[in-house]
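Structure tokens please, single chain.
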Amino acid sequence: MMDDYASLRKEIENLENNNHCLENKIKEPRNGLYSMTIKNETLHKELHITKMEVAHNMRWTRSSIMLDSIQKGQSSTRHDMYSCEEDYESFMGDYDRNSLKIIN
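Here you go.
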């Protein structure tokens, strides 16, 4: 019976040593995965911030383009309106041309 107990004890020691070796082998990749996960989270946050900034800048760009086209449309309308003397006279009636103030 003592021989069985001693052989079981030796078997348990061998299994514990193997278990310890396997845990050490797993530890390194686990640490690498953890650092990669942290880096991935950081990159995800930076990507979200960049997307928000791009969306905000695109709104400004679209607004700027729209305002620019409105301004160009108004200036071309003014130019067309005052390019012809008859149109000017019919538009202004009795007012003097020099008293007209155009607001930009």
